[in-house]
Predict the structure.
Amino acid sequence: MHKITLIPGDGVGPEITEAAKRVLEATGVSFEWDIQNAGEEVYKQEGTPLPDRVLESIRKNKIALKGPITTPVGSGFRSVNVLLRQTLDLYCCLRPCKSYAGAKTRYKNIDLIIVRENTEDLYAGIEYQKGSEGAKSIIESIRRINGKTIRVDSGISIKPISVYATERIVRFAFEYAKKNKRHKVTAVHKANIMKYSDGLFLEVAREVAKKYSDIEFEDKIVDNMCMQLVQKPGLYDVLVLPNLYGDIVSDLAAGLIGGLGLAPGANIGDEFAVFEATHGSAPKYRGLNKVNPMAMVLSGIMMLRHIGEITAAEKLNNALASIIKVGKSVTYDMKPTPDDPTAATTSDVADAIIKKIS
Ligand code: NAD
């Protein structure tokens, strides 16, 4: 019996987590789900979108399966997703992007692993609102220290990148490569412009790479990386990136394998792991039983592997792969056109997978 914290999330979260829960149970593995709500509704009821009970549950169970949670744009509460990753020190966001036969993709046989640093960079949450005392003080300090002028009507976000966090994320990428017989790690950065943050990331990555001489190492500037991924994705294997580039490049890579509906993810630390799709809460589809649950199911497959249920993971992966290959019981995003009348619903997809497993 595996005790797992289940966070349905908001927007389309509850629909896709329910679908993932059903297919995971259909593998025959026993789960005891500790259901913990978080997000927009919880904020209205409990005054915080991430109550302590959610964190306590994950600390107790060590593993969580999580639906997406909305972050208000520009104002309101800060991202629950970022807070969760920082509070539990889930320093690695692991996002495999693998194409399945039958999915609508520009290229065949894409198999990329994105290793995104999850705790610092511009996501550190150190920000100063335009005109605030903090912003004024920083503008004044920078003028005093190096004579540079920042306009007084500027908002400021700070981008810290440390040796500590870079070492452990790059080590994670190499250890992953070693364990999974991958041949190359590419560090992605903008060290030509941000010499002391991205420059540090690159310098530390080069140092760590020396300890893994049997795995090829290279680096790419992030803008070039985006172009290369669109034109020649087959040249790349494991990518390791600071937080912001990791976020953006993950969605680009998801686009290469057929869209966000197929891109899973895991937030992993030394003690805890939270499995969730790359995509967000897609609020406009909320409650319509319409979106693709496969990214969430694939995140569940990553979770099965993490908890040692390898046979169940393979069984579920094979069932999912065959549904994609046949192309009948798939949602609108995987049909030739989005308005295809034969598109399956979220729950239809779960039913089809369950039928295939049993
Ligand atoms: P989104 O990923 O929610 O959706 C973008 C578009 O991608 C959707 O409109 C839809 O067309 C498509 N899409 C997403 N998931 C799909 C699925 N399962 N099946 C089919 N199509 C799918 O991105 P957004 O609109 O930028 O973000 C919405 C909210 O989600 C925001 O509040 C954002 O902050 C939040 N978010 C949360 C997480 C998380 O919980 N980890 C991650 C990203 C975004």
